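Quick bug: DOPA 4,5-dioxygenase family protein output formatted oddly.
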Amino acid sequence: MSVIYHAHVYFLPEQAEFAAALHTTLAAQLPPGCWLGRLIHREVGPHTRPMFEIDFADTLLPAVRALLEQHRGPLPVLLHPQLADELAAHTTAASWLGQPLALKLDTLSRS
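Here's what came back:
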């Protein structure tokens, strides 16, 4: 059984235009089986910046990571598996492309 991964692409308000262009690029280039969420122009959940999300099976991780590395520019990206232990998913099991950001860890559940 495959594990679902999430990629959270973060942007500042002044980077919203770049983020929208990246979103359009990714919509055209992500492999089949990826789900691309809409741009969210506010903080939500544990996330401390506006962002958009990509969900995909772990088998697609190398392809998604490569696309993000190629096109993300200055935007930081959090990659993590979907786990019952949300805190572990967003910390010890996670990886970052670019500068890691602080998260609101107190909003995450533990198993």
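Actually, after a second look the formatting is fine. The longest strand covers residues 4-10. Closing.
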